[in-house]
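INFO worker-7 received task bundle
INFO bundle size: 2
INFO processing item 0
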Amino acid sequence: SLLELLTRTPQIELMERADAVRRHWHPGREVTFVIDTNPNYTNVCTTACTFCSFYRKRSDADAYVLSPEAVAERIRAAGRQGATTALLQGGHHPGLPLQYYLDIVTAVKQAAPEMHCHFFSPAEVANIAEVSGIAYLDVLERLYDAGLRTMPGGGAEILVDSVRRRISPKKISAGLWLNIMRAAHRLGMRTSATMTYGHVES
């Protein structure tokens, strides 16, 4: 119909093709959804991606860092309203050590034990490792030991470095993003991946 022709966007075609691939590799499996909450723990970030209006410098008046207890309380409150999953991502803060992130995992597990914790993208893991002066594998192992079992795929954008250099030149490379995900999988974590498109990718 005319309406279908007018609403058939490249994004819809991309989703249909992705779904066809999923059905090919996983026939008969249902796609399900979660009710999600995403309370950002900080908006302080040194990465300054060109598409981001969220980040702030440490010196900005509206910069913030939530305490682990405040993060846990927000997640607990979302759970009372029906949320089943907490997706936790924030800025790449230059001063928060690994213990801060471990404390978040512990606080959330205590405050909302029924909540699925989906925390800290590969770019955040790399930042935690750099700030703490340890290897990213050590960060992943400590997070796993604290009870984290899944990681979000934020920071992937487009996994082509020529694109990343244009839209997020300070963010980790595609190779490092993939290596952190592979390491997480070897530890037994499950992960997701997100794609930001509609900018300079071909």
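INFO item 0 finished
INFO processing item 1
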Amino acid sequence: VMAEVAASVVLLVSTGMLLRALWKLQGNDPGFRTEGVLTLRTALPDPKYNATATRANFYNRVLGDIRQLPGVTGAAYISFLPMAMGGGIWPVEVAQHPTDRNEAHTASMRFVTPGFFAAMRIPLRGGRDVEAGDTLDRPLAAVVSQSFAERYWPHQDPLGRHFKMAFQDHTVVGLVGDIRVRG
């Protein structure tokens, strides 16, 4: 009887802590709106979709068809959903920002199609969204979060600035509000 009572108390306390954590999590603003949002995962088979242009044609065709459906106000692709999947965490190098080896200079990187920020109602704070013309044969365009901009260019306009991530140079073309990526 004592063991059963002790086990019951442990379960009740654990349940209470779990409920408290869930309530706290629901109180956090993720930085995007989830109401009326449907997510799907698209896995494109190799080698048919190895070429970037082939994948881009597929995405454009699918998004065009989805946007024509009744009730759809926006559609876009993202490489990894925020708060749901891992995604890439990459070192960041900024020429004007001294890198302190004791401090982690990393950021989460996602690839998105035009219209992603509008579809998720993530506020555009400056500059522009990614465009269809932002391709690999042009300088890489980046839309960065407000916290990223404040970290590397505090109290400065980040638009037009450069940083290196994933072994490539990126040019900041847009600034959006922060979204929770992990946790």
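INFO item 1 finished
INFO post-check item 1: The mean pLDDT is 88.
INFO post-check item 1: The radius of gyration is 21 Å.
INFO worker-7 idle
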